[in-house]
Amino acid sequence: MDDGIFHKCHRGSADAGTEEEETPPNIELGEGVARNHAVVFTDGDKCILFPSCERGATETFVNGRSLQQVLSDLGVEEDAQICRQSEKPEVSGYELQHGDRVIFGRHYFVFVVPSMGSPEIMIASGKVDYVEARNEWQVEQRSAMQRRFSGIHASIFGGSLMGLGAGKSGALQLAERDEVIEAQRAEISELKQQLAAAKAEIRELKHIAGGTLASSTVAHILSGDYRLETSQAGDIKIDRISAAIKKTFTESIDKMMAVEALLSRKQRRATPESGDSAPRPGSILRRAVSEGSRKDMRVRVGLGESEGLAVGN
User: Fold this and answer.
1) Which of 151, 156, 241, 312 qualifies as a FRET site for 257, CA 20 to 30 Å off?
2) Where is the segment annotated Disordered (predicted)?
């Protein structure tokens, strides 16, 4: 195909090989060709290609693929592919088709059936040329190498990467696994941030509760949403407390305990007169009642929709 040398396949057998044999072949080739490389057997209007040795099976290519692979795809076992005689072969081979690109070692040919066109016209028209045939061979070689590497990778790593998706390359599987890991890390980081924000909010609410209740505010617990509200004439209203404290029952109890502790500390600061006993700290409900009485206020502690406790003067 590259230098315009033609070989005609006559009726019978035509051997391809090198001239180093005692009986030279019909088609003498050079580099990359074994002494007894391949056989082309012509029977009527059919030309059948056989390898004559193992090297001929692996280094003879049809349309870019090795003859060994082509015959294997046709169902011919490797032991039955070699034709070791120049007479009519007793094994199955590949029937050449018009326009097939055939490579013996480093020598490129195109098979032409005369009744279907001339090789000069086919090559001149650009339907097939040396560059195209070589590129075709290179593509098939790369594919075969990738298949071999995939087999080696599977034998080494086993099924460790196959769980992520069948039929995908190792690189794609690793990329998918990395994406899953990164997503999990991002989720963990977000949860940590939410936890830190919740802790900071609790600390801030406890601080605000301690500062506002120091001026005799009234605690009001609603059983429906467990809100802590503060109200007193003249005090600054902090609306965000009622909107923010909508957490859990445990958080509400913690805030109530903090309020009681604050009131207890204020009572302990008072200096008792000599001979008098220290005042007994009262609970938040008793203190709320006493302060409400002094300031003419009314307090209601809700225990439910059907129950209640009202305190007034």
Assistant:
1) 312
2) 1-26, 264-293
Using the predicted structure, report yes or no on whether residue 195 has a pLDDT greater than 70: yes
In this structure, the answer to whether residues 198 and 150 fall within a common structural domain is: no
99-132 core/surface letters (b: 16 or more CB in 10 A; e: else): ebbbbbbebbbbbbeeeeeebeebbeeeebbeee
3-state secondary structure (DSSP) of residue 69 = helix
The mean pLDDT of the chain is: 64
Domain with 52 in it: 12-157
pLDDT of residue 291: 47
H or E segment at 46? strand 46-51
- Name the residue with higher pLDDT: 219 or 192: 192
Q: Which two tokens stand for residue 310?
A: 């009202």
pTM of the model: 0.42
| CA–CA gap between residue 91 and residue 89 (Å, rounded) | 5
List alpha helices for the chain, DSSP H.
54-58, 67-73, 119-124, 130-157, 170-212, 239-244, 249-269, 284-294
Q: Are residues 139 and 260 in the same domain?
A: no
Is the CB of residue 245 less than 8 Å from the CB of residue 220? no
The amino acid that residue 194 corresponds to is: Q
| Total domain count, the chain | 2
Domain presence at residue 130:
yes
pLDDT in tens, 33-85: 766 778 888 877 888 888 888 887 888 899 988 888 888 888 877 766 676 55
CB crowding 136-172: b at 16 or more within 10 Å, else e: bbeebeeeeeeeeeeeeeeeeeeeebeeeeeeeeeee
Structure token pair of residue 124: 């001149």
Identify the CATH number of the domain in which residue 148 sits: 2.60.200.20
Q: Are 23 and 12 in contact (CB under 8 A)?
A: no
